[in-house]
Specification:
Elements lengths: L1 H21 L15 H13 L1 H4 L5 E6 L2 H12 L4 H20 L6 E4 L4 H7 L3 H13 L7 E3 L10 H6 L3 E3 L6 E9 L3 H12 L4 E9 L12 H5 L1
Helix pairs in contact: 4-5, 5-7
């Protein structure tokens, strides 16, 4: 364990050195750093210690972070400004959470997929951020990853009111053979997207669907019921 810790510190120092040479910056505050700087990391840890009940809640969905200001900036930079340096930061957080859940009671995952964005958003951004995160997590854990869901509605959730978000997008899914599927999204607000995606996966034959998101907003505690398996199966 000590060697692993020393190795990570060394890698971090080397990354910071190259970030100084190449001029890369922290996606949250803009200072020179290879990924999220140490000061922003402290802010994230402080916020998550205050919001521990959000981060640690795992009966319905697995969440890595509360939607703090720093996390919001990192996610938005990744989604809208193509700051790919954030991919490893966000992906590693999900991997760490999955390791914790596996040590508790999480069943073996057969397949990892994602809740796809709209075609228009993918064209505008040049990528689907949820797909990039899902493929990164799958690669780290050596689990199969493929596109299973197709988004039928072409209206993004971003910018909608809470009532409008509750309706959620509509998905269809490829046929599955009773696999345990992990579906990944970036931010959970009302739960409508993951609930709709879970419904499509169950309809396609998934044996179990586990939902995961990088972060949860402050609306989390009023909407966790959206993830109940009984509701998702209907």
């Amino acid at each position: 364990m000590m060697r692993v810790g020393v190795g990570r510190v060394l890698i971090k120092k080397l990354s910071d050195f190259f970030s100084f040479i190449l001029g890369s910056t922290c996606p949250a505050c803009g200072c020179l750093a290879s990924q999220v700087c140490s000061q922003c990391l402290k802010s994230i840890r402080l916020n998550d210690s205050v919001s521990k009940q959000i981060v640690e809640y795992h009966d319905k969905v697995i969440v890595a972070y509360a939607y703090s200001d720093v996390i919001r900036k990192v996610i938005l930079g990744f989604k809208y400004r193509n700051q790919r340096s954030s991919l490893r930061f966000l992906g590693d957080a999900l991997v760490d959470r999955l390791v914790v859940e596996k040590s508790r009671s999480l069943c073996k995952i057969d397949l990892i997929t994602w809740a796809p964005t709209t075609d228009l958003r993918k064209i505008e951004r040049g990528h689907d951020h949820a797909e990039l995160v899902a493929r990164y997590v799958a690669k780290q854990l050596q689990i199969s990853c493929r596109k299973v869901l197709t988004r039928l509605s072409d209206h993004p959730q971003t910018g909608k009111s809470r009532d409008a978000r509750l309706v959620g997008p509509v998905f269809t899914a490829q046929k599955l053979n009773a696999e345990h599927v992990l579906i990944i999204d970036d931010v959970v607000t009302t739960g409508a997207t993951l609930n709709s995606a879970s419904h499509a996966l169950y309809q396609a034959g998934a044996g179990l669907v586990t939902c995961m998101a990088v972060a949860s907003t402050v609306l989390w505690q009023s909407s966790i019921g959206s993830y109940a398996l009984a509701k998702a199966r209907k």
